[in-house]
Amino acid sequence: MKVDANSLLAMRSAILQQNSALQKAAAKPAAIGGVDATGPNSFSAALTDAIQQVNTQQSNASTITESYERGETTDVASVMLAREKASVGFQATLQVRNKLLSAYKDIMSMPV
After folding, report:
1. d(CA 52, CA 59)
2. pTM recorded for the entire structure
């Protein structure tokens, strides 16, 4: 697969569409992962769903990398793209975890 200006623009457009869809979903207090967003388990359901998506991305990246190593595919760009998606997803999850831990520590250190 050759990487040219048209394919880069198409990838950019797809990323922007996904970003727009995520922003719309975040703006709605509707159901997340089949659970009502006003319910007591909505945050945990959203977090679980996000972690599962990151896990899926990492599994896909591993599968594509192994396929490339075996010589079954020669598309280096798709391998690197899958690995970067998995890396970005993991880093985002790690930052969310760090923020949650920080918030927890702040709450626990508050005087009652």
Report:
1. 10
2. 0.57
